[in-house]
Specification:
By secondary structure, this protein is mostly helical. It has one domain. It is built from 7 helices and no strands. It is globular, with a radius of gyration of 19 Å. The chain starts with 23 loop residues before the first helix and ends with a helix.
Length: 257
């Protein structure tokens, strides 16, 4: 486990949001290592799922369940145990300010709208990057290549329930606890660059679909800066869940037209 102890402090931050700062190496490893493990699992699962005639989208859903959630929560609770002597996220996950209800509605909606506008503006560029730079990847690497007619109804139902639960809710919640609640406050020594670096590294963490990096970075910079400004991960958590749920439901609706 990577030790996160450091003597660097950010004196300008309120006590309830201050944390020992990570070194540059710690920041890189803690952002990227979970994504590397997730992607390695994905790469091993893809051909096996294809050979056993199982939906390729399970290649990312199963790693979310068995790798992403346990690994990222494991790091958080490990640090919590080191700090508090018990399984607790107190002092580990920061930026937990309770804001007025209207702000919990307005900001997540604005973040989702910004992401959708960014996606619409850059979708052609994203597809061009995928075709020109990553066209050599096998078909199962592209999770959008999914023909529901190839699978039984019970298999489809199970897959889409997992898709909604893991990609729409559980995965985003854990990622926001980890990336915006844990890692972002420990980058405060970067000052105004903290949000940008957090967004870039969070995008690169998705090693399994690198062609989306430009879109993700442009879209997610706003999320990191809103969380840092408002000191509330609940805003990004709501936005992330809403956005992933929208894309999940759109995907399901396309398959069952």
């Amino acid at each position: 486990m990577i030790s996160t102890s450091s003597t660097i402090k950010v004196p300008s931050m309120p006590t309830e949001y201050s944390a020992a700062q990570h070194t540059v190496l710690q920041t890189l490893l803690l952002h990227l290592l979970p994504g590397a493990v997730l992607t390695i699992t994905f790469i091993f699962l893809g051909p096996w799922l294809q050979a056993n005639h199982l939906p390729p989208i399970l290649a990312i859903l199963l790693p979310i369940l068995f790798v992403l959630i346990p690994l990222e929560l494991g790091i958080l609770y490990y640090e919590g145990y080191r700090r508090n002597g018990k399984l607790s996220l107190e002092g580990i996950v920061l930026y937990r300010e309770r804001l007025p209800i209207k702000e919990h509605i307005i900001f997540p909606l604005l973040l989702v709208v910004w992401f959708l506008l960014t996606f619409a503006a850059l979708i052609n560029l994203e597809q061009a990057i995928q075709m020109t730079l990553f066209g050599w990847l096998p078909d199962w690497f592209n999770l959008s290549l999914f023909n529901p007619a190839d699978y039984s109804q019970p298999m489809l139902t199970m897959t889409f329930v997992l898709y909604l639960a893991l990609n729409g809710v559980a995965g985003p919640v854990v990622e926001e606890l980890y990336f915006r609640g844990y890692l972002l406050p420990r980058m405060e020594y970067m000052k105004g660059w903290a949000g940008l670096v957090n967004a870039v590294l969070f995008s690169l963490y998705h090693f399994f679909n690198p062609w989306q990096n430009i879109t993700r970075i442009v879209a997610l910079i706003s999320m990191a800066y809103v969380v840092r400004r408002k000191k509330s991960i609940y805003l990004s958590m709501l936005a992330h869940c809403l956005l992933n749920t929208i894309f999940t439901l759109l995907t399901v609706s396309l398959f069952f037209q």
